[in-house]
Amino acid sequence: MKHLLSIEDLTADQIHGLLELTDHMAEISSRPIPKVPALRGKNVVSLFFEDSTRTRTSFDTAAKRLSADTMNFSVSSSSVNKGESLRDTIETISAMGVDAFVVRHKSSGAPLQITQWTNASIVNAGDGWHQHPTQALLDCYTIRTALNRRDGFDGLRIAIVGDIKHSRVARSDVQAFAALGADVTLVAPPTLLPPALVNGNSPDWPVTVSHDLDSLLPDLDVLYLLRVQRERMDEALLPSLHEYSALYGLTAERAARLAPHALVMHPGPMNRGVEMVVDPGELPGSVILNQVTNGVAVRMAVLFSLLGSGNDLKETA
Amino acid sequence: MSTEARVVLNADDVRRALTRIAHEIVERNHGLHGLVLVGLQRGGVWMAQALAEILGGIDGGSTVPVGSLDVSFHRDDVGLRPIVPGHVTDIPMSLDGTTVVLTDDVLFTGRTVRAALEALNEYGRPRAVQLAVMVDRGHRELPIRPDFVGKNLPTSRDEQVAATPEGVTIR
User: Fold this and answer.
1) Which residue among A76, A192, A261, A311 has the highest number of C-beta atoms inside a 10 angstrom radius?
2) Domains delineated in chain A
3) Residue-level pLDDT at A314
4) Chain B contact for A2, CB < 8 A?
5) Best mutation target, A15, A16, A21, A24, to test chain B (most B CBs within 10 A)
6) Contact A35 B122 (CB under 8 A)
7) pLDDT of A66-120, one tens digit each?
8) pLDDT value at position B92?
9) Is B84 on the interface with A (CB under 8 A)?
10) How many domains are contained in chain B?
11) Helix pair A54-65, A133-146: axis angle to 10 deg
12) Cβ of B70 and A24 within 8 Å?
């Protein structure tokens, strides 16, 4: 594996392989001294053209636990502000000797484009509405450990609720969950569904669509809430946050109707009082902080597979 | 691959070698106090477990803690060979002040043991580390020697040696 751009590029076996490798990384993270020399001498540069706290620090922590050198490229203090193009920026940094770029960009496809301009490995850390593959992998790992589903998600019922249309997390999660065998239902108002799904099913989306969260709740194994992006309010896609919260928010009443084993997940950052009305700290099934912890281990596995592993994961599986 | 595997030790020989090693461990350490067995993933894990069982029988009912150690990320050849997922380190206690007996099936170049010594540091500072192997086949590339050996076996570099509870074979 040279790059990680999209969950679509991975086979189910490769996803399983990465999740198994993540077990090793989670063990490293639990040591008194959580650092191994595996990527000594490798240079990992994070290149974030969009804001981020958890993804950026998570990748940074992951690279450091593997003893890679890390460099943070911050767009606000760079020559991008002097009008330097993306291509020139990439070629300039590459010339300093880079083994991997971790890229977040507002344009879908930017990480793929960047692979043409450098010999370094590219990890997509979120591009537009398109993909956020490490988020999907950490979500899979969280479900796999919390529900003890090492062999796959056959028959697992997962609902993803919220702004599917603008969500790279939803796109990546649907592909990863479906590849592992889960039954995925998308719950959203029609204005926040991808156009392909508004009038029924689409071959690109292995999902069922519902507009009624309440009828689904008792049967779910995983309830995955997406962030309501407040900027969508300006586009008149939602009548009001209050109405969204009344129909799709996780209230105490709805939480009480979940099965006792059901997990509640959220990619963060959370809008309390909108999609998350209850305090997630009070929810027994909340694994939201586990997602953050697992994010580091999953990103260690990804960086190690790209930079440290002698062979492609599927050959070693 | 075409040549037949030759049996060097059978299952009974392996059991007897383990019993002797267990007694040597007790003798060297004046008992079992502060002793921890750590098997190297994957080949040394069965040996650590088997030794723990025998040691418990020698020193009336005392149990020796057993851990396992995956050294994949400490190897000096990271990147030259794939790592096999699914064999995770399990060291359930701090190693500060303990005497660790590392166990492995076959001692060859010594590079795995070097990686293990480095990996162990992350779990505490043992008072001493000793090395028990079922087979020492020579060809060391580092200044490392075993403290307890089941069988010294002269080999050529391209021969393959396997050591399991069922026996030791060479091909």
Assistant:
1) A192
2) 7-132+293-316 (3.40.50.1370), 133-291 (3.40.50.1370)
3) 39
4) no
5) A24
6) yes
7) 999 999 887 777 777 777 889 999 999 999 999 999 999 999 999 999 999 999 9
8) 85
9) yes
10) 1
11) 80
12) yes
CB–CB of B82 and A27 under 8 A? no
Low-confidence ranges of chain A (pLDDT < 70): 232, 309-317
Side chain identity at residue A108, one-letter code: S
Q: How far apart are CA A120 and CA A116, in angstroms?
A: 10
Structure tokens at A189: 């108002």
Mean pLDDT rounded to a whole number for chain B: 92
> Considering CB atoms only, which of B85, B119, B122 is closest to A20?
B85
Whether A27 and B81 lie within 8 Å, measured CB to CB? no
Report the candidate in A43, A46, A48 with the shortest Cα–Cα distance to residue A66: A43
B163 inside domain: yes
Contact A23 B86 (CB under 8 A): yes
Domain that holds residue B65: 6-170
What single-letter amino acid sits at A142? Answer: T
Output the pLDDT for position B55. 94
Structure tokens at A300: 């260690």
B2 pLDDT band, cuts 50/70/90, is low
Report pLDDT for A200.
Answer: 77
CA distance B48 to chain A (A): 20
Q: Is the pLDDT of residue B18 over 60?
A: yes
Active site (catalytic) residues of A: 54-55, 82, 104, 132
Cα distance from B22 to chain A (closest Cα, Å)? 29
Contacts of A28 in chain B (CB under 8 A): 73
Question: Is residue B24 domain-resident?
Answer: yes
ipTM surpasses 0.95: no
* CB-based contact B124:A32 (threshold 8 Å): yes
